């Protein structure tokens, strides 16, 4: 009776607050457009909404955002940080697929990987893992050294700070954080697993520090910083759009799929799009800015005649500019190692989704549901001593149930699923334990994105070409050996830790624990960690692999920029959301022709 009452109360509060938390109503989105706008932003994702906010600060310009998806703000269930994996494979996800992989995905059906990417206002920040990671000083210094003037670590750091509203006071490198920006960042580390894990990493010689501080030197282990404010996901729409949606000079349209940038005499003059089944077009007085993500921006450029000449000609698309769009696709991969623990201190759904935790979440923004999917710590290591920067990131996931919500998304073959997850899902009592995601952060393998057809609604051909470079596998194996050391520490013994062995068809005949067997596991099981980048690479005009210049202008076309994750010259060391916010903050200054941040040290 008591449980029933508590559950009913929890549900009542949940329903009431879900209406309270809605911050948009359908009439706030435009269906009748001006003939022209100063700036047209294509894509209302992480980058697009930063630009919408910053460009519309100037009251004398008009700004339009066109987003293909919906306003997802009426689905507060996805704002629960613990629910992050549940938002995948929903209406808020494009659900792309890779082509069959030659060197990886041996455990997936037809060797095809599923690629979630966010669709709707907020883009991938609607469904991402919320981890806030900036990358290393070396990443940006290398961009600058390779001709991207203005993009060194010291020059971009103020733009990271501009986005941020750091809510914590302890354990952070204060000098490298700021308060008052649109995106709230909190420490979401909660479980005893995480506390002990930090000790374990220290035991093998790494220091606990703030991986987003320390002058951009990441090496070491840190607690999880996540885009969580008041216990809720602070997606890009909540942080950047909600506070400015009433501005008269800002129009935002949803369900508006842009099909082409209109380019006349090498000048972008507007866009065509389909809204609610009707073809429409608007003109740009100043610029069109593509922020449609690493897939969308590259696809749109090619549909508009900007791309590799041979490919466009083959599809009958008139070539406006012959540029290597989609030719340098890169992505990070993750591979899970797992351990069971005797002490019942990890997350399980039964412990997280209790009536009390629902109440705590909705009433106070506290409790276990505010953990971002049990992602609790990041470790950055150099497995290659000659590397200038970490090459492996270890993400602690303090549960064995993470696949309960997302294992179907990995597209593993049935017999692989059975071998990996039966012990979790076939038992009544879910085992206690944790996973460590080994992430390859400096992949050498490079893939491509190409159009499947001239139809803008056809998904492009996505070939990340994972693990094509044998060096990537070697790095992976060194990363796994590092985890093995970690799992043997005295600290982790306190939890009664035992390593879970992998036993999957296809790798059973290899010598147990040999490098050959680990290679087999990695080639079967490693999957995307959802960071496609570099499809519209930034570089100096002299760089034949670059699509945009360091001002993010598409080479040879005026009035057209790309500002999102796709412009990264190389993947940053870690998750890509924070760097994308930074890119868009800086892009806004480049477009407005003013510097809104104080240089470092001034
Ligand atoms: C499942 C998942 C988990 C992730 N976890 C993390 C994490 O924990 N931490 C982290 O740092 N990063 C994470 N990322 C990556 C991070 O979210 C992205 O790098 C970042 O959001 C990229 O921003 P963007 O602006 O380039 O693209 P997006 O945020 O994806 O936005 C692109 C927008 O453009 C829209 N669009 C596309 N085509 C068109 C078109 N033709 N017309 C109109 N609109 C269009 C899309 O619908 C989308 O809203 C994750 C990503 C995913 C998918």
TrEMBL record:
Domain Glucose-methanol-choline oxidoreductase N-terminal span(s) in chain numbering: 118-141
Chain residues that bind FAD: 258
InterPro entries from the UniProt entry: FAD/NAD-bd_sf, GMC_OxRdtase, GMC_OxRdtase_N, GMC_OxRtase_C
Entry's Gene Ontology molecular function annotations: flavin adenine dinucleotide binding; oxidoreductase activity, acting on CH-OH group of donors
Cofactor(s), by name: FAD
Keywords, sorted A to Z: FAD, Flavoprotein
Coiled coil: none
UniProt record similarity statement: Belongs to the GMC oxidoreductase family.
Protein name: Glucose dehydrogenase [acceptor]
């Amino acid at each position: 009776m008591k449980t029933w009452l508590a559950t009913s109360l929890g549900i009542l509060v949940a329903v009431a607050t879900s209406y309270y938390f809605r911050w948009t109503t359908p009439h706030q989105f435009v269906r009748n457009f001006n003939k022209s706008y100063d700036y047209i932003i294509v894509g209302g994702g992480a980058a697009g909404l930063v630009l919408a906010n910053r460009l519309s600060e100037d009251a004398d310009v008009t700004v339009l955002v066109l987003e293909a998806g919906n306003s997802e703000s009426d689905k507060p269930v996805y704002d629960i940080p613990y629910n992050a994996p549940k938002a995948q494979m929903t209406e808020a996800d494009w659900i792309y697929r890779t082509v069959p992989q030659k060197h990886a995905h041996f455990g997936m059906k037809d060797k095809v990987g599923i690629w979630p990417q966010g669709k709707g206002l907020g883009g991938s920040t609607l469904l991402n893992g919320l981890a806030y990671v900036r990358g290393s000083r070396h990443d940006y210094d290398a961009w600058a050294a390779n001709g991207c003037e203005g993009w060194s670590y010291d020059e971009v750091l103020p733009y990271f700070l501009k986005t941020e509203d750091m809510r914590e006071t302890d354990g952070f490198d204060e000098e490298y954080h700021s308060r008052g920006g649109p995106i709230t960042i909190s420490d979401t580390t909660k479980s005893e697993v995480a506390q002990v894990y930090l000790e374990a990493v220290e035991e093998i010689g790494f220091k606990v520090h703030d991986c987003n501080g320390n002058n951009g030197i990441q090496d070491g282990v840190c607690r999880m910083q996540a885009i969580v404010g008041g216990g809720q996901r602070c997606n890009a729409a909540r942080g950047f759009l909600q506070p400015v949606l009433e501005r008269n000079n800002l129009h935002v349209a949803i369900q508006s799929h842009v099909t082409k940038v209109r380019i006349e005499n090498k000048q972008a003059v507007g866009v065509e799009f389909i809204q609610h089944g009707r073809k429409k077009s608007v003109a740009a007085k100043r610029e069109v800015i593509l922020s449609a993500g690493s897939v969308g921006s590259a696809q749109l450029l090619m549909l508009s005649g900007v791309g590799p000449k041979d490919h466009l000609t083959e599809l009958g698309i008139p070539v406006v500019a012959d540029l290597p769009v989609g030719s340098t696709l890169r992505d990070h991969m993750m591979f899970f190692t797992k351990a069971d623990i005797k002490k019942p201190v990890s997350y399980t759904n039964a412990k997280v989704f209790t009536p009390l935790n629902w109440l705590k979440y909705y009433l106070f923004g506290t409790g276990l549901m505010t953990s971002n999917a049990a992602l609790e710590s990041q470790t950055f290591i150099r497995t290659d001593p000659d590397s200038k920067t970490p090459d492996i990131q270890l993400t602690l996931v303090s549960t064995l149930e993470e696949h309960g919500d997302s294992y179907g998304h990995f597209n593993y073959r049935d017999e692989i699923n059975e071998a990996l997850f039966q012990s979790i899902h076939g038992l009544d009592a879910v085992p206690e334990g944790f996973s460590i995601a080994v992430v390859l952060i400096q992949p050498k393998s490079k893939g491509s994105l190409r159009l499947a057809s001239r139809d803008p609604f056809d998904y492009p051909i996505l070939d990340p070409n994972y693990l094509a470079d044998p060096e990537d596998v070697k790095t992976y194996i060194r990363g796994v050996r590092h985890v093995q050391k970690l799992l043997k520490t005295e600290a982790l013994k306190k939890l009664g830790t035992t390593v879970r062995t992998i036993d999957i068809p296809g790798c059973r005949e290899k010598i147990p624990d040999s490098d050959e067997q680990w290679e087999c596991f990695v080639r079967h099981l490693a999957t995307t960690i959802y960071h496609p980048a570099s499809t519209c690479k930034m570089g100096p005009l002299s760089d034949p692999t670059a699509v945009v210049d360091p001002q993010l202008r598409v080479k040879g076309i005026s009035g057209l920029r790309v500002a999102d994750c796709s412009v990264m010259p190389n993947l940053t060391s870690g998750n890509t959301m924070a760097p994308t916010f930074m890119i868009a903050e800086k892009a806004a200054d480049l477009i407005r022709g003013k510097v809104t941040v104080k240089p470092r040290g001034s």
